[in-house]
Amino acid sequence: MTNIILTSELTVKPIKVEASDNDVIQAMLVSTLGEIDDLEATQGRINFLMKNRHGTPFEHTYFKFYIAAPIFVFREFHRHRIGWSYNEESGRYKQLDPKFYVPDSDREVVQIGKPGAYEYVPGNDLQRTSVRRALEMSYQVSYEYYEMMLSKDIAKEVARMCLPVAIYSSMYATCNARSLMAFLSLRQRHDEEALFPSKPMKEINIVADKMEEAFKTAMPMTHGAFVRNRYVAP
Amino acid sequence: MTNIILTSELTVKPIKVEASDNDVIQAMLVSTLGEIDDLEATQGRINFLMKNRHGTPFEHTYFKFYIAAPIFVFREFHRHRIGWSYNEESGRYKQLDPKFYVPDSDREVVQIGKPGAYEYVPGNDLQRTSVRRALEMSYQVSYEYYEMMLSKDIAKEVARMCLPVAIYSSMYATCNARSLMAFLSLRQRHDEEALFPSKPMKEINIVADKMEEAFKTAMPMTHGAFVRNRYVAP
Amino acid sequence: MTNIILTSELTVKPIKVEASDNDVIQAMLVSTLGEIDDLEATQGRINFLMKNRHGTPFEHTYFKFYIAAPIFVFREFHRHRIGWSYNEESGRYKQLDPKFYVPDSDREVVQIGKPGAYEYVPGNDLQRTSVRRALEMSYQVSYEYYEMMLSKDIAKEVARMCLPVAIYSSMYATCNARSLMAFLSLRQRHDEEALFPSKPMKEINIVADKMEEAFKTAMPMTHGAFVRNRYVAP
Amino acid sequence: MTNIILTSELTVKPIKVEASDNDVIQAMLVSTLGEIDDLEATQGRINFLMKNRHGTPFEHTYFKFYIAAPIFVFREFHRHRIGWSYNEESGRYKQLDPKFYVPDSDREVVQIGKPGAYEYVPGNDLQRTSVRRALEMSYQVSYEYYEMMLSKDIAKEVARMCLPVAIYSSMYATCNARSLMAFLSLRQRHDEEALFPSKPMKEINIVADKMEEAFKTAMPMTHGAFVRNRYVAP
Prior knowledge:
- The structure is a homotetramer of 234-residue chains.
- By secondary structure, chain A is an alpha+beta fold.
- Chain A has a domain of 157 residues: Gyrase A, domain 2, CATH 3.30.1360.
- In chain A, 41% of the residues lie in helices and 18% in strands.
- In chain A, a hairpin with a 6-residue loop joins strand 6 and strand 7.
- The longest helix of chain A is centred in the middle third of the chain and has 27 residues.
- Chain A is globular and about 65 Å long.
- About 3% of the residues of chain A have low confidence.
- Chains A and B meet through helix 3, helix 4 and helix 5 of A and helix 3, helix 4 and helix 5 of B.
């Protein structure tokens, strides 16, 4: 019997970043080079672009991330089509590791209210214990049937059908600053601060927060303008 | 105890199709209108575009499908980013039905050979029985834990973490003839006939075959040229 | 000597439209079907999607336009990459007609202020006469050199190098309601009404206004929600 | 009277390149990591991906170019929508320089044959002289009317209407190795060598050749596999 691994860890590693605030200015000024003296300084220019939703100058940048997260997070991630490239681990070609996501103590597990306006609350002890126990048992059973099938030479792509959406996968995800901001604007929760608040699932929100760190480090002025303009992606 | 439904059915319904061979010609001729007498007839023109990979005239068309299939099929489907629009049932907002995919008697369940060059064979009786039994048991257990959690008011998005990738989902998928051909070229298996043979998973291949039917019906000459040019998407 | 045609006409013909407010609802409800009783009626639902920037349900729609406009309009048009398909008349394959754009009496021809904050004013009579006369003379000379080269069997793609960006071209442009709203949000001018005002060139604004008519006719509730939400594309 | 500049120069400068063959391998192996011993070495793997048209591993790369070319080249360039970002000099915001493209002595100026199957030949001395003279005269006249209008405070976006498509513009263009190969496969001419020969205009072919140099330098094995697989973009 395989020991399955239960974890709440969501991994985001910036593998390569080739992006700076100057990339934005460079792209912007090609449009208007003859009159740069009339424009304000770098921060002002970036803010102008952000505020007026001139998005293209932000595209000439490059972020490559390694991400490890459960499949249900990747399912949402892959709905971001434009300005995103993905290569993900495949259950058709390799045996998936027995590593599964469980909510940690910060993760609300109870949902109240109506669709489109759900609120999430922590849940009581009994509920939290039930979740943990039910998920663990279900994961364990699924993985054992998976291994049993593999031991009988069943094709990986068939055996994995019983594996849950909480099993971990990994991928490389590459984007630019514009497509990253579009992702952040939908996958982070900024209630009051955001002009268009979104209600992402907590797990993809955590992934988004980690990606935002890399963005902020590489492009502090662009990030600042994004925040100041209330997380509206240009 | 809920009775789960086991099925091998993969549903593809063309909901709206607004596409004809004439759409291709119309788009093509805007480029060259002054000299149409020098061009050959419709079939020849479409074949010319296909052979020379002039893809844009095929884009001015519209296919909307309703598709019901297991999540592992949708995972592959959603990697097609360009010229595709999707809206899928969400396990965050509704309780998912207890309907799961199992291979039918035509589905090979054993894989031999090396990655990148797998072959699939039917498997012996024992193997086939094992697959069926293991999947059914695993699905049943997963769904019971799911329902148990829901009965304790656990959030749908949390409870569903234990559900397997073989559970059914449904979506609307909209594309044009060019993005459809790109999909077909990668998700159908045409061994000898295809110039660039691909090795899709059987389940998405079945979905692709059903979509091809709608394509062939709406645009018979375009489909014919696609086949004649060995399934190379323009 | 060829008589050139001077015109201010910008043509937009909806060729095929397969789009309705119901397409949006259908795509939306696949996500949440189990709980539709909790949601409000159609108009409310569309407004909810628009307000919360849930864009994908608007994509399952189809608009094909025929557009005739000068090249400088198409240059801006073709920068809209996502959810747009184009086939345009080609100066490589046919002789271009001697038809050129000139500003009509409503078109401001004088620009004041700084880059990023230009204002346009009508100009005085002398200025307006100068524009008309200069453009006409320049077009006439360019087209005569073009014809002279063609008469010497010079390749069309070489001879056309001298033709101005105001010469007319034509294209088919196909989009969906989401990509159309993205276009409108950037290419229409709605000063006070728009949450993010843009400053499009007048000629593409006129084209956008005509496309908006087809949008409003096919999808009145979606259009209404777009206006109510201050022209922010979802 | 302004002295206009006539040139045949087409400038392509790689500004930033963050791309290597190893990026491809890294993205590929995330799919199959458990079994890398069964795969061949790097060159073999890249060739496998190229031959089987597995395109996504090539996307995790970054090329930013500065390009200076006439507008008629950019018109074709901007039809490449996917995996490409552009920011171009704008005739709305700055006065365009009096720099115009003319064919050099290597550029065939006469076209024979039918649409779809044109051949280009050098042309005789008279023809070549006529082209040069006609273009120069036409450019000169156009630019003088342009300057005359600017001198009367006519808006730049109006005055530029008379400028020819051969006037120079500049842009930043950013892509990845996959979108670059798609561009090269359509915009280079490789008659016998290419599996799907294309017939690009000579000027964009020259631009493409210069971009190919940067590609070859950064990713020699990927470039080699592209050539070996007869310029079929994966």
